[in-house]
Amino acid sequence: xxxxxxxxxxxxAAAKGSPEQVAEFEDxxxxxxxxxxxxxxxxxxxxxxxxxxxxILIFGALLGAKFFSPFALTLILQQVQxxxxxxxxxxxxxxxxxxxxxxxxxxxxxxxxxxxxxxxxGLPPAVAILCGLAIGTAIGAVNGFxxxxxxxxxxxxxxxxxxxxxxxxxxxxxxxxxxSQEIEANAPILQLFGAKFNVGGAVFTVGVIFMxxxxxxxxYALRHTAWGRHVYAVGDDPEAAxxxxxxxxxxxxSVYMLSGLICAFAGWALIGRIGSxxxxxxxxANIESIxxxxxxxxxxxxxxxxxxxxxxxxxxxxxxxxGLRLLGADAQWTFLLIGMLIIAAVAVxxxxxxxxx
Amino acid sequence: xxxxxxxxxxxxxxxRVTALDHCDFDLMPGEILAVIGDNGAGKSTLIKAVSGAAxxxxxxxxxxxxxxxxxxxxxxxxxxxxxxxxxxxxxxALSITDNMFMGRExxxxxxxxxxxxxxxxxxxxxxxxxxxxxxxxxxxxxxxQAVETLSGGQRQGVAVARAAAFGSKVIILDExxxxxxxxxxxxxxxxxxxxxxxxxxxxxxxxxxxHVFEVADRIHVHRLGKRxxxxxxxxxxxxxxxxxxxxxxxxxxxxxxA
Lengths: 357, 258
Description:
A: two-stranded antiparallel ribbon, B: alpha/beta, four-stranded antiparallel sheet, ATP-binding (chain B), ATP binding (chain B)
């Protein structure tokens, strides 16, 4: 024993004859489906983009100019702007392997704060807007703290926060709507996101532009800044991220706070969209935003997907809604098709993940 | 000679279990110190204590004669201690480059970096490629491929390269060859010697006695939460080492740890 133990190389001698190279990255042949799979793995937002383009083409073929006009297509943008903005916030949270059920409630609460601070307390509208944005960020911070420091599951935290914020919203606003004319006369800045401008038949609103710019800025931040890489790493494997030097707590706090802030902006955009400040509006924003994110190909398990996908996801829902309505179909068909899309999107996500093997 | 990394009287309890029981630890400059011990002896806890992943309940740690107080792996890393964990601590969906630079990304120069916080991808990719090549670890076609598309050995290689590239004072390797084949293990052992030749001391935790006896300058035998003895691999056989760590044999008086 003591003889052989002094020569630890012995057992390796047998392997000497075989080729010396190890750990090479050979480019083995994948076949067509394999290539497609690999390509989608690199570009996760491509699937929803293909679905979106296909949906536009199909409805365009069926409906002709009625659908395929600048007016109708930009109408879709206007209809999805709220969901699109909220879906951007939802995407960030879902990328960290969380979920935010309170997005809709934060949005409504912020819009109510903006309205009530202006009309109940007589604050300058701009200050009231800042207060609304601050409230949204603060609620997000509470969510982030409970998830990151107290280590509660995001689903539970935001399920609770949803109820709390929604109830607070009704209690505080006394279920009272601020009418559109009143806002228009006294605080037009609250309706800023509803301002329209016309480009050759295409109608854009400030809210639509805000949604598009927001998504582009977030896409840049997620891809080209250290913060963005950390968001993905935390969603992928928080323990590994912590060990390899990411401040997981700070990353989670920043994501939930930013999500709250974006939802507050959505609240401002909501006033522009519906004209009034109504505590009962936007009740489905959480489910609709999750739908957009899932159809957009962001994995609910975190760490995978692109925020552009969420925008495409929101637009797909918008195209289906408007297209089917113009076709005169029952609105339930929209929900049925969206339901199928959700399941298909997750199935594709699972398939793409297998590229790892 | 003064140890570069020194632990004294370290205690760590998890509930009723005492994982570290007034344990001492010394790493000399420029050496490879192997830490061996039976499962449950507290090796991992010891390593976590010196790498910042766990904060000891009692005791003190000195790095280069200065007392240090690590509360997270980031603290230890900033002090120059790099650790390759057994789990590798990599984000599978991110690229090799992203993983190598996780938590210490390079930003662009000028306003692109300072205002827009843009990452300097070309510089990071070049650095990652250079480091992997320099260590002779692998020939890479695509430095931007996701880590999850690599084999176990390749992932290990990237993790070791990351530690070797950034570790300035101490490198800790936790079971670096456990998941590897014979040839890939050889590469990692060569890599360990290579890092040592650059003067950086290494702590190696391993169950593989032939590997330990091949590369280690000294062997720290851990038993029941404390340092049993420190032996020179030239003076003892592998079976002696196993006998010490399982308690089958009393350690020699002159090597016994205080």
